[in-house]
TrEMBL record:
Signal sequence region: none
Domain Carboxymuconolactone decarboxylase-like: 28-86
Protein name (record): Carboxymuconolactone decarboxylase family protein
Domain of life: Bacteria
Taxonomic lineage: Bacteria, Pseudomonadati, Pseudomonadota, Gammaproteobacteria, Alteromonadales
Any matching Pfam family: CMD
Length: 195
């Protein structure tokens, strides 16, 4: 169970970010930009990277939710398992391998990043902008993993499925008037979980 009374077993990151808009509103714009903005990386690749980083951090909520989003874009759940087992032996196109090696190192040993980590991505014909996109995604999900685990939000299969549906259809945009419609959203979530 989550550690705060305004949260419950069906809570997600929005229950944190919508509870304190003055603190967390910028995160929504940043998330939309890195996960849905213009990039050489497809949406499904970005979602797979998010799930991969989260799995490395053992964040059950973000792993489940972002794998569910990737599934909505036809990414197999087995692919995440393959990447966690051995990036180079996964069924993913090898052009993506340097991206996942970079994500692994930036997540598990960030102070050891060196020029050759970037050069490997550039040698695979990705742009410098893609390296920056990757850095933003990996860094953001390391933060999000800690934000959710710090609040005690673990999620469950139904929460992950709802997140997968919502994020695949609507992205990460949050309307400025969210405080006004949050009670309606909370009622819809309750109905969804009561089904």
């Amino acid at each position: 169970m989550p550690f705060f009374t305004h949260l419950n077993q069906n809570s997600d990151i929005t229950d944190i970010t919508w509870n304190n808009r003055s603190r967390f509103a910028p995160i929504d714009k940043f998330s939309e930009n890195i996960m849905r903005g213009s990039s050489e990386l497809s949406i499904e690749t970005r979602e797979l990277i998010a799930a991969y980083v989260s799995a490395l951090n053992e964040c059950s909520f973000c792993t489940g939710a972002h794998l569910a989003v990737a599934n909505q874009f036809s990414v197999s759940s087995n692919l995440l398992d393959e990447l966690l087992e051995n990036i180079d032996n996964s069924s993913l196109d090898p052009v993506f391998n340097p991206l996942f090696h970079f994500a692994y190192k930036l997540t598990t040993n960030p102070s050891r990043m060196v020029q050759s980590d970037v050069d490997a991505i550039l040698a695979a014909k990705w742009s410098a902008q893609t390296v920056e996109d990757l850095i933003c995604i990996v860094s953001a999900f390391n933060f999000f993993n800690r934000l959710l685990d710090g609040h005690g939000i673990k999620g469950n299969e139904k929460v992950y499925q709802m997140a997968g549906e919502q994020l695949s259809q609507k992205g990460y945009k949050v309307p400025f008037f969210i405080k006004l419609i949050k009670p309606l959203i909370d009622r819809q979530k309750k109905k969804y979980f009561d089904e």
